[in-house]
């Protein structure tokens, strides 16, 4: 079989750096006890590692108080904690058509069940949301604006700083979903006017699945919508209000946090600019190769300024699922097909009617050879189905 070419980093990065595997195994074997529940040596070592990871991520997002960095199950869990903890009956929220279901579905349930009004702002033909369009929808009861920083379908990076400034002027909480961007491009909560950032650990932060969290800026309060053990002040009947306990419940994912610790350190050592430049060069190579093939449709890829290395396409006349199956079976290329948990993107670009698109997601370990092979594979699929040749 041909060498595996993994082009599904939009779903999760694979493989992880060796340091991540080693750290998870070593730490869980040697210190796999419940942090914060006792004062013996192993417990305190576990506590120290968790706190170090909070500090690493707080610095990563340019936060100010590492206690306001909380860990959750993943990015979706973090967004649920934030959205349900920030909105109440009668509130108004603004979001976009770029969003993942981790935002769309919580907002839908709030609109259906809790009288929360939600506006969805479309993107333009290049794949970007106009901050002024968001501004025009703001009103007296607008409590939250939530925006996907980087699209997991078309790869466009939204003008977060400008949107955040509009929110800051009006005292509206601004939440970003950084699932696709954290670990690829810098996120500075102060400079970009962000109040809450939701992140996942298993994508470009190079950590394992089952990790993620929020950073909540000082002055912003997210209600706790769950309750349980924290390991401290157990006699208090109500769940604690102070961070990080306010939004953390029960035993955390200690081996996952250990792996995330190693992943963040790996990203910092490599450098965000270096990682993003490498992936962007491969994206341009991929885009240029695919658009030379008659019979391939690309979406929002004309200008790659402010893009992450995610590209959606279709082979004319083929279902995305069929293209993906051929890439997998015949070429050993792993990619993602379908609606990518972002149905409104596909509705706007028209691919919802043909069951979505094929997505190539480039990661830090991909090579020019991978991209050359992928372009050749798509070309062969087109020719085998249509007899059309590359231009």
Task: Describe this entry's structure for a reader.
With 391 residues, this protein is α/β, with parallel strands linked by helices. The chain folds into 2 domains: 5-15 and 271-386, Aspartate Aminotransferase, domain 1; 18-269, 3-Layer(aba) Sandwich (Aspartate Aminotransferase, domain 2), CATH 3.40.640. It has helices at residues 18-31, 41-60, 75-86, 101-113, 131-137, 160-170, 254-270, 272-290, 320-331, 343-349, 368-386, and strands at residues 5-6, 69-72, 92-96, 117-121, 142-148, 173-177, 196-200, 212-216, 296-298, 310-315, 333-334, 336-338, 357-361. The strands form 3 sheets. A 7-stranded mixed sheet has the order 2-8-7-6-5-3-4, with helices on both faces. A 4-stranded antiparallel sheet has the order 9-10-13-12, with helices on one face. Strand 5, helix 6 (160-170) and strand 6 (173-177) form a beta-alpha-beta unit. The longest helix has 20 residues, at 41-60. The radius of gyration is 22 Å and the shape is globular.
| Major β-sheet profile | 7 strands, mixed
Mean pLDDT: 95
**Helix and strand sequence:** EHHEHEHEHEHEEEHHEEHEEHEH
CATH homologous superfamily descriptor of the largest domain: Type I PLP-dependent aspartate aminotransferase-like (Major domain)
Q: From the 3D coordinates, which CATH architecture of the largest domain would you assign? A: 3-Layer(aba) Sandwich
